[in-house]
Fold:
Amino acid sequence: MTKGEKARSEILALRNRSPPGKVEVWELDMSKYSSVLAFGDRLRTLSRLDVLIANAGIDTNQFERFEGCESTITVNVISTFLLAMLATPKLRETSVTKTTSSHLVVTGSVVHIFAKHKQLSTPRLGQIFATLSDESTADMSDRYYLSKLIVLLGVRQLAIMISRSAEIDHSSVILNCVNPGWCKTELFRTNDGGFGGRIGLRLIGRTAEEGSRTLVHAAVAEKPTHGKYVSDCRIKPESSWVRSEESSQVEERLWIELLDILEGIRPGVTNL
Amino acid sequence: MRFIVSKNSIARKSPFNFITILPLFLSFQLQLRTIAQDLSIRTCKMGLPGDILQMQRGQIFQTPFVPSVDLTGQTVIITGANTGLGFEAAKHLSVYYGHNCCIKLTPSFAGTNSTLRTSS
Structure:
């Protein structure tokens, strides 16, 4: 039995309410664009899609390549935004036909405040992702933080795109970037921040259940959360760098580059 | 015997027993909370230290709540739901809003390298 099937049976075992909803397991490998694309095509066959929680991510300190890019960047950033782009048309459609708000939630993290943002502002024009995927210069201890910073910047830009498209068909897709907090999950299995990290997690860490409430909140949050960083079930300011002048230029450069990459994976995917 | 009695009497007279400590402890916590709130307003322009204070405040004092809403008939997709946060969120969404709420779980199997973790 796969992990997914096991999760499904555990969820079904919990529910004794009637009438029961459906729980399905769909296979998705975020390290392969082909898998993400197949998943995107499959969700187009749904009759409706109200909420997508793009939550899958990895944290590793070993350099590895998936699909030509460094693995954390591929999984946490490129595949995540590819999935978001593929799902947006369906979310918009549902929002229009059912006259509701649909939600797109991307799991970010508070650790974006620690990211060494120089890695984004120093590379030459159009070279950010290429530089990050250079094994000789990659700072892997900072990589997870940086990937979550890119996710946050990307969410802000994607929110602008979604708002623009909403003016055309009056759809209401709410996109937000959620911080679940520091949680006792498998994410820190090998990269747990040493002794201090373990003690800290024991003292102030949340259980996965408590952390998951933030995802649930973001998945049903109101319009003001659109394009915002949501933490502890409320809108919070992003890191000081993200709010600075410098970051808005980096954000735009980064977004143009990311759109190029996504267009390279499937032409036309970024036309929302 | 005498020793035990004297020890008990000391304990009874001590101002630091549980009942006196409790309000002190609570008021201390309240003070911490107000200090933290006060700080968060000022921390917005403090750079990284401010960001860290903000983070600590959220992590320690702002326990997330379970929002109440009805998702009847809706379809929800959660990626990375085979473990951790995604799995717990799926449980919440299916149990609390369980009427015909259709949930697709997507376990993401990121590579076979043992250092990689599907997350959360």
Notes: The CA atoms of residues 53 and 105 of chain A lie 5 Å apart. DSSP finds nine helices and eight strands in chain A. Chain A touches chain B through 85 residues (CB under 8 Å).
